[in-house]
Protein backbone atom coordinates (compact mmCIF):
# COMPACT_ATOMS: atom_id res chain seq x y z
CA UNK A 1 0.00 0.00 0.00
CA UNK A 2 1.33 3.47 -0.75
CA UNK A 3 2.83 4.98 2.34
CA UNK A 4 0.65 7.60 4.00
CA UNK A 5 1.19 9.11 7.43
CA UNK A 6 -1.90 8.91 9.49
CA UNK A 7 -1.32 12.21 11.28
CA UNK A 8 -3.56 14.23 8.93
CA UNK A 9 -6.91 15.98 9.18
CA UNK A 10 -9.55 13.37 8.47
CA UNK A 11 -12.19 13.60 5.81
CA UNK A 12 -15.33 14.41 7.77
CA UNK A 13 -17.25 11.44 6.42
CA UNK A 14 -14.84 9.02 8.12
CA UNK A 15 -17.09 9.21 11.16
CA UNK A 16 -19.59 7.08 9.23
CA UNK A 17 -17.21 4.15 9.07
CA UNK A 18 -15.95 4.50 12.61
CA UNK A 19 -17.88 6.24 15.34
CA UNK A 20 -19.38 4.43 18.26
CA UNK A 21 -20.80 1.21 16.92
CA UNK A 22 -20.91 -1.28 19.78
CA UNK A 23 -23.47 -0.79 22.51
CA UNK A 24 -22.15 -3.55 24.71
CA UNK A 25 -24.73 -3.13 27.44
CA UNK A 26 -27.74 -2.72 25.18
CA UNK A 27 -30.44 -5.38 25.25
CA UNK A 28 -33.02 -6.38 22.68
CA UNK A 29 -36.18 -7.60 24.33
CA UNK A 30 -38.12 -8.39 21.14
CA UNK A 31 -38.26 -12.08 20.29
CA UNK A 32 -36.86 -13.36 16.98
CA UNK A 33 -40.39 -14.24 15.89
CA UNK A 34 -41.49 -10.64 16.32
CA UNK A 35 -38.37 -9.10 14.84
CA UNK A 36 -38.38 -11.20 11.68
CA UNK A 37 -42.04 -12.05 11.20
CA UNK A 38 -43.48 -11.90 7.70
CA UNK A 39 -45.36 -8.79 6.65
CA UNK A 40 -46.56 -7.27 3.39
CA UNK A 41 -43.78 -4.65 3.21
CA UNK A 42 -41.03 -7.26 3.49
CA UNK A 43 -42.87 -9.53 1.02
CA UNK A 44 -43.09 -6.67 -1.47
CA UNK A 45 -39.34 -6.10 -1.40
CA UNK A 46 -38.51 -9.81 -1.69
CA UNK A 47 -41.00 -10.25 -4.53
CA UNK A 48 -39.57 -7.32 -6.51
CA UNK A 49 -36.04 -8.75 -6.28
CA UNK A 50 -37.35 -12.17 -7.42
CA UNK A 51 -39.15 -10.58 -10.38
CA UNK A 52 -35.95 -8.83 -11.46
CA UNK A 53 -33.84 -11.97 -11.04
CA UNK A 54 -36.14 -14.27 -13.03
CA UNK A 55 -37.99 -12.03 -15.49
CA UNK A 56 -35.94 -8.91 -16.24
CA UNK A 57 -34.81 -8.72 -19.87
CA UNK A 58 -31.09 -8.35 -19.09
CA UNK A 59 -28.82 -10.30 -16.76
CA UNK A 60 -28.58 -8.43 -13.50
CA UNK A 61 -26.43 -9.04 -10.43
CA UNK A 62 -29.16 -9.14 -7.79
CA UNK A 63 -26.54 -8.97 -5.04
CA UNK A 64 -25.72 -5.45 -6.18
CA UNK A 65 -29.43 -4.60 -6.18
CA UNK A 66 -29.72 -5.81 -2.61
CA UNK A 67 -26.70 -3.71 -1.61
CA UNK A 68 -28.24 -0.63 -3.21
CA UNK A 69 -31.55 -1.34 -1.52
CA UNK A 70 -29.96 -1.77 1.92
CA UNK A 71 -27.97 1.44 1.51
CA UNK A 72 -31.08 3.26 0.34
CA UNK A 73 -32.99 2.18 3.42
CA UNK A 74 -30.19 3.17 5.78
CA UNK A 75 -29.77 6.56 4.07
CA UNK A 76 -33.30 7.35 5.17
CA UNK A 77 -32.53 6.68 8.83
CA UNK A 78 -29.53 8.66 10.09
CA UNK A 79 -26.01 9.42 8.81
CA UNK A 80 -24.34 6.80 10.99
CA UNK A 81 -26.39 3.66 10.29
CA UNK A 82 -24.27 1.97 7.63
CA UNK A 83 -24.01 -1.23 5.63
CA UNK A 84 -20.68 -3.05 5.39
CA UNK A 85 -20.56 -5.64 2.57
CA UNK A 86 -18.87 -8.99 3.00
CA UNK A 87 -15.80 -8.04 0.96
CA UNK A 88 -15.00 -5.17 3.34
CA UNK A 89 -15.53 -7.07 6.56
CA UNK A 90 -11.99 -8.45 6.99
CA UNK A 91 -10.43 -5.00 6.72
CA UNK A 92 -13.01 -3.40 9.02
CA UNK A 93 -12.69 -6.20 11.59
CA UNK A 94 -8.89 -5.88 11.62
CA UNK A 95 -9.08 -2.12 12.16
CA UNK A 96 -11.41 -2.51 15.11
CA UNK A 97 -9.59 -5.51 16.56
CA UNK A 98 -6.27 -3.68 16.34
CA UNK A 99 -4.09 -6.36 14.75
CA UNK A 100 -3.69 -8.74 11.83
CA UNK A 101 -1.44 -11.65 10.89
CA UNK A 102 1.43 -10.68 8.61
CA UNK A 103 5.19 -10.26 8.29
CA UNK A 104 5.50 -6.87 10.00
CA UNK A 105 6.67 -4.30 7.48
CA UNK A 106 5.64 -0.80 6.49
CA UNK A 107 5.94 -0.62 2.71
CA UNK A 108 4.71 0.92 -0.49
CA UNK A 109 5.00 0.00 -4.14
CA UNK A 110 7.94 2.02 -5.38
CA UNK A 111 8.34 2.05 -9.16
CA UNK A 112 7.75 -1.63 -9.93
CA UNK A 113 8.53 -3.39 -6.64
CA UNK A 114 7.73 -3.56 -2.93
CA UNK A 115 9.95 -1.16 -1.04
CA UNK A 116 10.29 -1.68 2.71
CA UNK A 117 10.03 1.67 4.48
CA UNK A 118 10.85 0.11 7.83
CA UNK A 119 10.17 -3.08 9.74
CA UNK A 120 7.89 -3.21 12.78
CA UNK A 121 10.05 -3.23 15.90
CA UNK A 122 10.47 -6.81 17.20
CA UNK A 123 8.17 -8.03 14.42
CA UNK A 124 8.72 -11.11 12.22
CA UNK A 125 10.62 -9.31 9.44
CA UNK A 126 12.79 -7.40 11.89
CA UNK A 127 13.76 -10.63 13.62
CA UNK A 128 14.52 -12.25 10.27
CA UNK A 129 16.91 -9.44 9.30
CA UNK A 130 14.95 -7.47 6.72
CA UNK A 131 15.79 -3.73 6.70
CA UNK A 132 14.39 -0.44 5.50
CA UNK A 133 15.20 0.07 1.81
CA UNK A 134 14.99 -3.64 0.96
CA UNK A 135 12.92 -4.65 -2.07
CA UNK A 136 10.87 -7.84 -1.71
CA UNK A 137 11.08 -9.50 -5.12
CA UNK A 138 9.47 -12.89 -4.52
CA UNK A 139 7.30 -14.66 -1.93
CA UNK A 140 7.17 -18.48 -1.97
CA UNK A 141 8.32 -18.45 -5.58
CA UNK A 142 5.73 -15.92 -6.77
CA UNK A 143 7.08 -12.70 -8.24
CA UNK A 144 6.16 -9.46 -6.50
CA UNK A 145 7.33 -6.94 -9.04
CA UNK A 146 6.14 -5.48 -12.31
CA UNK A 147 3.98 -2.68 -13.69
CA UNK A 148 0.73 -4.52 -12.92
CA UNK A 149 1.54 -4.99 -9.25
CA UNK A 150 -1.54 -4.37 -7.08
CA UNK A 151 -1.52 -3.74 -3.35
CA UNK A 152 -4.36 -6.19 -2.71
CA UNK A 153 -2.48 -9.04 -4.39
CA UNK A 154 0.69 -8.18 -2.49
CA UNK A 155 -1.07 -8.23 0.85
CA UNK A 156 -2.67 -11.60 0.11
CA UNK A 157 0.75 -13.12 -0.59
CA UNK A 158 2.32 -11.66 2.56
CA UNK A 159 -0.57 -12.43 4.90
CA UNK A 160 -1.38 -15.94 6.09
CA UNK A 161 -2.18 -17.99 9.15
CA UNK A 162 -0.30 -17.28 12.36
CA UNK A 163 3.10 -19.02 12.69
CA UNK A 164 3.06 -20.03 9.03
CA UNK A 165 6.27 -19.33 7.13
CA UNK A 166 6.92 -17.46 3.90
CA UNK A 167 10.16 -17.59 1.93
CA UNK A 168 11.20 -14.19 0.59
CA UNK A 169 13.80 -13.16 -1.98
CA UNK A 170 15.05 -9.65 -1.30
CA UNK A 171 17.14 -7.19 -3.27
CA UNK A 172 19.37 -5.03 -1.05
CA UNK A 173 21.39 -2.17 -2.45
CA UNK A 174 25.09 -2.99 -2.39
CA UNK A 175 24.59 -6.77 -2.25
CA UNK A 176 25.80 -8.72 -5.33
CA UNK A 177 22.86 -11.14 -5.35
CA UNK A 178 19.35 -11.58 -3.95
CA UNK A 179 19.08 -12.41 -0.26
CA UNK A 180 16.88 -15.23 1.06
CA UNK A 181 14.78 -14.84 4.22
CA UNK A 182 12.32 -17.18 5.89
CA UNK A 183 9.80 -15.17 7.89
CA UNK A 184 7.36 -16.67 10.37
CA UNK A 185 4.09 -14.71 10.26
CA UNK A 186 2.79 -13.28 13.50
CA UNK A 187 0.27 -10.84 14.94
CA UNK A 188 1.03 -7.32 13.78
CA UNK A 189 -0.50 -4.44 15.73
CA UNK A 190 -2.46 -1.73 13.96
CA UNK A 191 -1.52 1.01 16.37
CA UNK A 192 -4.21 3.30 17.68
CA UNK A 193 -1.86 5.19 20.01
CA UNK A 194 0.40 7.18 17.70
CA UNK A 195 2.70 8.63 20.32
CA UNK A 196 3.39 8.83 24.07
CA UNK A 197 6.20 11.10 25.20
CA UNK A 198 7.01 13.96 27.59
CA UNK A 199 6.33 17.54 26.51
CA UNK A 200 7.87 19.01 29.67
CA UNK A 201 9.23 17.60 32.92
CA UNK A 202 5.71 17.25 34.32
CA UNK A 203 3.48 17.15 31.22
CA UNK A 204 3.08 13.94 29.22
CA UNK A 205 1.45 13.60 25.81
CA UNK A 206 -0.62 10.73 24.37
CA UNK A 207 -2.22 10.75 20.93
CA UNK A 208 -5.01 8.28 20.11
CA UNK A 209 -6.16 7.96 16.48
CA UNK A 210 -9.21 5.70 17.08
CA UNK A 211 -10.81 3.51 19.76
CA UNK A 212 -10.20 -0.14 18.83
CA UNK A 213 -10.14 -3.30 20.98
CA UNK A 214 -6.40 -2.85 21.56
CA UNK A 215 -6.54 0.88 22.33
CA UNK A 216 -6.94 0.76 26.09
CA UNK A 217 -3.97 -1.60 26.47
CA UNK A 218 -1.84 0.66 24.24
CA UNK A 219 -3.02 3.73 26.14
CA UNK A 220 -2.29 2.17 29.53
CA UNK A 221 1.21 1.18 28.40
CA UNK A 222 1.84 4.77 27.34
CA UNK A 223 0.36 6.22 30.53
CA UNK A 224 2.45 3.92 32.73
CA UNK A 225 5.60 4.91 30.81
CA UNK A 226 4.88 8.62 31.23
CA UNK A 227 4.09 8.28 34.92
CA UNK A 228 7.41 6.48 35.38
CA UNK A 229 9.06 9.47 33.69
CA UNK A 230 7.45 11.82 36.18
CA UNK A 231 4.26 12.93 34.43
CA UNK A 232 1.83 14.70 36.77
CA UNK A 233 -0.27 16.03 33.90
CA UNK A 234 -1.42 14.45 30.63
CA UNK A 235 -2.29 16.07 27.30
CA UNK A 236 -4.65 13.56 25.64
CA UNK A 237 -4.76 14.34 21.91
CA UNK A 238 -8.03 13.25 20.29
CA UNK A 239 -7.85 15.51 17.26
CA UNK A 240 -8.91 13.83 14.02
CA UNK A 241 -10.09 10.81 16.02
CA UNK A 242 -13.42 9.57 14.53
CA UNK A 243 -14.27 7.30 17.47
CA UNK A 244 -14.73 3.55 17.73
CA UNK A 245 -15.78 1.21 20.51
CA UNK A 246 -17.82 2.79 23.30
CA UNK A 247 -16.53 0.57 26.10
CA UNK A 248 -12.91 1.46 25.27
CA UNK A 249 -13.61 5.17 25.70
CA UNK A 250 -15.20 4.36 29.07
CA UNK A 251 -12.08 2.49 30.19
CA UNK A 252 -9.87 5.42 29.27
CA UNK A 253 -12.09 7.94 31.07
CA UNK A 254 -12.03 5.64 34.10
CA UNK A 255 -8.28 6.26 34.43
CA UNK A 256 -8.97 9.94 35.18
CA UNK A 257 -12.29 10.05 37.06
CA UNK A 258 -12.77 9.31 40.75
CA UNK A 259 -14.81 6.28 41.81
CA UNK A 260 -18.54 6.32 41.04
CA UNK A 261 -18.42 9.43 38.87
CA UNK A 262 -20.87 9.21 35.96
CA UNK A 263 -19.14 8.76 32.59
CA UNK A 264 -22.22 8.77 30.36
CA UNK A 265 -25.66 7.25 29.96
CA UNK A 266 -27.47 5.84 26.94
CA UNK A 267 -31.19 5.82 26.11
CA UNK A 268 -32.86 3.58 23.51
CA UNK A 269 -36.21 3.92 21.70
CA UNK A 270 -38.09 2.31 24.58
CA UNK A 271 -36.67 4.84 27.01
CA UNK A 272 -34.41 2.33 28.76
CA UNK A 273 -31.45 4.09 30.37
CA UNK A 274 -28.07 2.49 31.02
CA UNK A 275 -25.51 4.40 33.08
CA UNK A 276 -21.75 3.93 33.14
CA UNK A 277 -19.72 4.93 36.21
CA UNK A 278 -16.02 5.19 36.95
CA UNK A 279 -14.56 2.37 39.04
CA UNK A 280 -11.68 2.14 41.48
CA UNK A 281 -9.25 1.15 38.71
CA UNK A 282 -8.10 4.65 37.76
CA UNK A 283 -4.35 5.30 38.02
CA UNK A 284 -4.39 9.01 37.15
CA UNK A 285 -7.26 10.31 39.28
CA UNK A 286 -5.00 12.80 41.08
CA UNK A 287 -3.37 14.11 37.90
CA UNK A 288 -4.27 17.04 35.68
CA UNK A 289 -5.80 16.25 32.29
CA UNK A 290 -6.00 18.32 29.10
CA UNK A 291 -8.08 16.90 26.24
CA UNK A 292 -7.28 18.21 22.75
CA UNK A 293 -10.19 18.16 20.27
CA UNK A 294 -11.05 19.61 16.89
CA UNK A 295 -13.85 19.53 14.31
CA UNK A 296 -12.94 15.92 13.40
CA UNK A 297 -13.05 14.54 16.96
CA UNK A 298 -16.18 12.39 16.97
CA UNK A 299 -18.27 9.96 19.02
CA UNK A 300 -15.97 8.06 21.41
CA UNK A 301 -13.62 11.06 21.42
CA UNK A 302 -16.57 13.22 22.43
CA UNK A 303 -17.52 10.79 25.20
CA UNK A 304 -14.06 11.25 26.71
CA UNK A 305 -14.13 15.04 26.34
CA UNK A 306 -17.70 15.29 27.63
CA UNK A 307 -17.07 13.14 30.68
CA UNK A 308 -13.95 15.12 31.62
CA UNK A 309 -15.67 18.47 31.06
CA UNK A 310 -18.96 17.64 32.80
CA UNK A 311 -17.16 16.30 35.87
CA UNK A 312 -14.98 19.43 36.11
CA UNK A 313 -11.97 17.14 35.95
CA UNK A 314 -9.75 18.79 33.36
CA UNK A 315 -9.53 21.31 30.55
CA UNK A 316 -10.82 20.81 27.02
CA UNK A 317 -8.59 22.60 24.50
CA UNK A 318 -9.16 23.22 20.79
CA UNK A 319 -12.23 23.71 18.61
CA UNK A 320 -15.83 22.48 18.70
CA UNK A 321 -15.97 18.73 18.12
CA UNK A 322 -17.85 16.89 15.39
CA UNK A 323 -21.18 16.37 17.13
CA UNK A 324 -22.02 12.64 17.04
CA UNK A 325 -24.10 11.34 19.92
CA UNK A 326 -25.53 8.15 18.42
CA UNK A 327 -24.58 4.58 19.32
CA UNK A 328 -24.48 1.81 16.70
CA UNK A 329 -24.68 -1.94 17.13
CA UNK A 330 -23.33 -4.48 14.65
CA UNK A 331 -25.96 -6.88 13.29
CA UNK A 332 -25.18 -9.87 11.09
CA UNK A 333 -27.17 -10.04 7.85
CA UNK A 334 -26.45 -13.74 7.34
CA UNK A 335 -24.21 -13.60 4.26
CA UNK A 336 -21.02 -12.27 5.82
CA UNK A 337 -22.14 -8.64 5.62
CA UNK A 338 -23.32 -6.56 8.54
CA UNK A 339 -25.28 -3.44 9.30
CA UNK A 340 -24.24 -0.98 11.97
CA UNK A 341 -27.62 0.24 13.11
CA UNK A 342 -28.16 3.20 15.42
CA UNK A 343 -29.85 1.76 18.52
CA UNK A 344 -29.57 4.51 21.12
CA UNK A 345 -28.34 8.00 21.92
CA UNK A 346 -25.71 8.77 24.50
CA UNK A 347 -25.69 11.68 26.93
CA UNK A 348 -22.86 13.31 28.85
CA UNK A 349 -22.98 13.35 32.68
CA UNK A 350 -24.90 16.67 32.81
CA UNK A 351 -27.56 15.15 30.55
CA UNK A 352 -26.71 16.83 27.26
CA UNK A 353 -26.86 15.20 23.84
CA UNK A 354 -24.14 16.51 21.57
CA UNK A 355 -25.63 15.00 18.38
CA UNK A 356 -26.12 17.69 15.79
CA UNK A 357 -29.29 17.73 13.67
CA UNK A 358 -29.53 15.48 10.61
CA UNK A 359 -33.12 16.13 9.57
CA UNK A 360 -32.05 17.94 6.37
CA UNK A 361 -30.34 14.86 4.95
CA UNK A 362 -26.87 13.37 4.83
CA UNK A 363 -25.41 15.88 2.37
CA UNK A 364 -26.21 18.87 4.56
CA UNK A 365 -25.01 16.91 7.57
CA UNK A 366 -21.56 16.31 6.13
CA UNK A 367 -21.31 19.74 4.53
CA UNK A 368 -21.54 21.36 7.97
CA UNK A 369 -17.75 21.47 8.09
CA UNK A 370 -17.77 23.98 5.25
CA UNK A 371 -20.43 26.01 7.04
CA UNK A 372 -18.12 26.18 10.08
CA UNK A 373 -15.24 27.20 7.82
CA UNK A 374 -17.24 29.90 6.02
CA UNK A 375 -18.80 31.26 9.21
CA UNK A 376 -15.36 31.86 10.71
CA UNK A 377 -15.99 29.49 13.63
CA UNK A 378 -12.64 27.75 13.12
CA UNK A 379 -10.87 31.05 13.75
CA UNK A 380 -13.12 32.86 16.22
CA UNK A 381 -14.93 31.26 19.21
CA UNK A 382 -17.51 34.06 19.12
CA UNK A 383 -18.79 32.59 15.85
CA UNK A 384 -19.75 29.28 17.48
CA UNK A 385 -23.54 28.98 17.49
CA UNK A 386 -25.00 27.97 20.85
CA UNK A 387 -28.62 27.26 21.77
CA UNK A 388 -29.61 28.67 25.17
CA UNK A 389 -32.35 26.05 25.41
CA UNK A 390 -29.60 23.41 25.49
CA UNK A 391 -27.63 25.02 28.33
CA UNK A 392 -26.39 22.79 31.16
CA UNK A 393 -24.38 23.40 34.32
CA UNK A 394 -21.55 21.26 35.70
CA UNK A 395 -21.22 20.57 39.46
CA UNK A 396 -18.69 23.42 39.71
CA UNK A 397 -21.06 25.86 38.01
CA UNK A 398 -19.50 25.89 34.52
CA UNK A 399 -21.95 26.43 31.64
CA UNK A 400 -21.83 23.82 28.86
CA UNK A 401 -24.02 23.33 25.80
CA UNK A 402 -25.57 20.41 23.96
CA UNK A 403 -26.85 20.22 20.42
CA UNK A 404 -23.77 19.86 18.23
CA UNK A 405 -20.40 18.86 19.63
CA UNK A 406 -18.28 19.65 22.66
CA UNK A 407 -17.31 23.33 22.91
CA UNK A 408 -13.78 23.59 24.38
CA UNK A 409 -12.94 25.45 27.57
CA UNK A 410 -9.94 27.02 25.83
CA UNK A 411 -10.30 27.83 22.14
CA UNK A 412 -7.36 27.43 19.71
CA UNK A 413 -7.93 28.55 16.09
CA UNK A 414 -7.05 26.40 13.12
CA UNK A 415 -3.42 26.85 12.06
CA UNK A 416 -3.53 27.86 8.41
CA UNK A 417 0.22 27.35 8.00
CA UNK A 418 0.78 23.77 9.17
CA UNK A 419 -2.76 22.83 8.07
CA UNK A 420 -2.34 24.37 4.64
CA UNK A 421 -4.48 22.49 2.10
CA UNK A 422 -1.60 22.00 -0.35
CA UNK A 423 0.71 20.51 2.29
CA UNK A 424 -2.05 18.27 3.62
CA UNK A 425 -2.78 17.06 0.07
CA UNK A 426 0.91 16.33 -0.57
CA UNK A 427 1.17 14.39 2.68
CA UNK A 428 -2.03 12.45 2.12
CA UNK A 429 -1.07 11.48 -1.42
CA UNK A 430 2.32 10.21 -0.26
CA UNK A 431 4.52 12.80 -1.97
CA UNK A 432 6.46 13.58 1.21
CA UNK A 433 6.84 9.88 1.98
CA UNK A 434 8.04 8.96 -1.50
CA UNK A 435 10.46 11.88 -1.65
CA UNK A 436 11.98 11.10 1.74
CA UNK A 437 12.34 7.43 0.81
CA UNK A 438 14.28 8.36 -2.33
CA UNK A 439 16.49 10.73 -0.34
CA UNK A 440 17.25 7.99 2.18
CA UNK A 441 18.06 5.61 -0.66
CA UNK A 442 20.92 7.90 -1.69
CA UNK A 443 22.74 7.29 1.59
CA UNK A 444 20.99 5.50 4.45
CA UNK A 445 24.28 5.03 6.26
CA UNK A 446 24.48 8.80 6.84
CA UNK A 447 21.92 8.42 9.63
CA UNK A 448 23.38 5.35 11.31
CA UNK A 449 25.19 7.24 14.05
CA UNK A 450 22.42 9.63 15.04
CA UNK A 451 20.06 8.61 17.83
CA UNK A 452 16.31 9.16 17.72
CA UNK A 453 16.34 11.89 20.37
CA UNK A 454 19.36 13.60 18.86
CA UNK A 455 17.61 13.65 15.48
CA UNK A 456 14.39 15.07 16.97
CA UNK A 457 16.16 17.72 19.03
CA UNK A 458 18.99 18.88 16.78
CA UNK A 459 18.65 17.72 13.17
CA UNK A 460 17.83 20.51 10.74
CA UNK A 461 16.47 20.21 7.22
CA UNK A 462 18.41 22.49 4.91
CA UNK A 463 16.96 24.90 2.36
CA UNK A 464 18.50 22.82 -0.40
CA UNK A 465 16.26 19.86 0.52
CA UNK A 466 13.16 22.05 0.24
CA UNK A 467 14.20 23.15 -3.26
CA UNK A 468 14.96 19.53 -4.19
CA UNK A 469 11.47 18.56 -3.02
CA UNK A 470 10.03 21.43 -5.05
CA UNK A 471 11.79 20.15 -8.20
CA UNK A 472 10.66 16.61 -7.36
CA UNK A 473 7.02 17.74 -7.30
CA UNK A 474 7.22 19.81 -10.46
CA UNK A 475 8.46 16.76 -12.37
CA UNK A 476 5.48 14.71 -11.16
CA UNK A 477 2.59 17.19 -11.18
CA UNK A 478 1.00 19.40 -13.81
CA UNK A 479 1.27 22.59 -11.76
CA UNK A 480 4.30 24.63 -10.81
CA UNK A 481 4.65 24.53 -7.02
CA UNK A 482 6.68 26.96 -4.96
CA UNK A 483 6.97 27.13 -1.18
CA UNK A 484 7.93 30.76 -0.70
CA UNK A 485 5.23 31.34 1.93
CA UNK A 486 5.54 27.90 3.57
CA UNK A 487 9.27 27.24 3.53
CA UNK A 488 9.60 26.42 7.24
CA UNK A 489 6.42 24.35 7.27
CA UNK A 490 7.72 22.18 4.42
CA UNK A 491 10.92 21.63 6.39
CA UNK A 492 8.84 20.41 9.31
CA UNK A 493 6.90 17.96 7.14
CA UNK A 494 10.13 16.62 5.63
CA UNK A 495 11.84 16.26 9.01
CA UNK A 496 8.79 14.56 10.56
CA UNK A 497 8.59 12.13 7.63
CA UNK A 498 12.31 11.41 7.88
CA UNK A 499 11.91 10.72 11.60
CA UNK A 500 9.03 8.36 10.93
CA UNK A 501 10.87 6.36 8.27
CA UNK A 502 14.04 6.17 10.34
CA UNK A 503 12.63 5.56 13.81
CA UNK A 504 8.82 5.11 13.76
CA UNK A 505 7.01 4.71 17.09
CA UNK A 506 5.67 8.25 17.36
CA UNK A 507 8.72 10.03 15.95
CA UNK A 508 6.57 11.78 13.34
CA UNK A 509 4.31 13.30 16.00
CA UNK A 510 7.20 14.26 18.25
CA UNK A 511 8.76 16.28 15.42
CA UNK A 512 5.55 17.63 13.94
CA UNK A 513 4.23 18.80 17.30
CA UNK A 514 7.19 21.16 17.69
CA UNK A 515 5.28 23.64 15.49
CA UNK A 516 1.78 22.85 16.81
CA UNK A 517 0.04 25.90 18.27
CA UNK A 518 -2.44 23.79 20.24
CA UNK A 519 0.39 21.90 21.92
CA UNK A 520 2.01 25.26 22.70
CA UNK A 521 -1.24 26.42 24.31
CA UNK A 522 -1.40 23.32 26.50
CA UNK A 523 2.21 23.82 27.61
CA UNK A 524 1.38 27.43 28.49
CA UNK A 525 -1.68 26.34 30.48
CA UNK A 526 0.43 23.77 32.30
CA UNK A 527 3.09 26.35 33.16
CA UNK A 528 0.44 28.66 34.62
CA UNK A 529 -0.62 26.05 37.16
UniProtKB/TrEMBL annotation:
Q: Which family does it belong to?
A: Belongs to the peptidase S41A family.
Write out the entry's keywords from A to Z.
Hydrolase, Membrane, Protease, Serine protease, Transmembrane, Transmembrane helix
Q: Might you report a single GO cellular component term?
A: outer membrane-bounded periplasmic space
Could you tell me which Pfam families the record lists for this protein? PDZ_2, Peptidase_S41
Leader sequence range is: none
Domain PDZ, which positions? Answer: 81-144
Q: What is this protein called?
A: Peptidase S41
Which Gene Ontology biological process is one annotated for this entry? signal transduction
Q: Source organism lineage?
A: Bacteria, Pseudomonadati, Bacteroidota, Flavobacteriia, Flavobacteriales
Tell me the Gene3D superfamilies matching this sequence: 2-enoyl-CoA Hydratase, Chain A, domain 1, 2.30.42.10, 3.30.750.44
Native species of this protein? Flavivirga aquatica
From the record, give the transmembrane residue ranges. Answer: 7-26
- GO terms, molecular function: endopeptidase activity; serine-type peptidase activity
